[in-house]
Amino acid sequence: MPEELEPQRKEERSVLYGVVLRAHPGTFNERAIRRAQWQPPEGVTIVAEYWFPTDDPSVVSIVEADDPNALVPISMAWDDLFDIEIFPVTPAEEGLELLRQMGPTSAQGQG
């Protein structure tokens, strides 16, 4: 098939997601045992993981995935021990660059 007739493929780009886990009370031992053995699902890479000495939040992770459906097993594996929120995030450097490209805004100077 000539190149110009080939279907255009959407460029795949990994997306970063923030995963915020709020522990259910009284689950520390079970969480520790499970985390020691748990691996992220296929298609998900843990970029960073932070543990807090609190239940809310208890863990914040930054993960990378090409397909948001790859994140579903995280919720399934942990929803009995945590309340979980997952959302796309932007690194500060990229966010600051976007702000620079947008130029001055009406919010500038307010504080």
What's the β-strand tally?
A: 4
Shape: globular
Total of domains: 1
**Helix/strand/pairing class, anyone?**
alpha+beta
The helix-strand sequence is EHEEHEH
Distance between the termini: 58 Å
What is the name of the CATH superfamily?
Dimeric alpha+beta barrel
What is the CATH topology classification name?
Alpha-Beta Plaits
Strand fraction equals 25-35%
> What number is the mean pLDDT?
88
Helix content: 25-40%
Q: Let me know the largest β-sheet.
A: 4 strands, antiparallel
CATH architecture: 2-Layer Sandwich
What radius of gyration results from the CA coordinates? 19 Å
Spatially, the strands of the biggest sheet line up as 2-3-1-4
Query: Counting H and I runs of at least 4 residues, what is the number of helices?
Result: 3
Counting copies of identical and different chains, the oligomeric state is single chain
Uncertain parts: 5-11
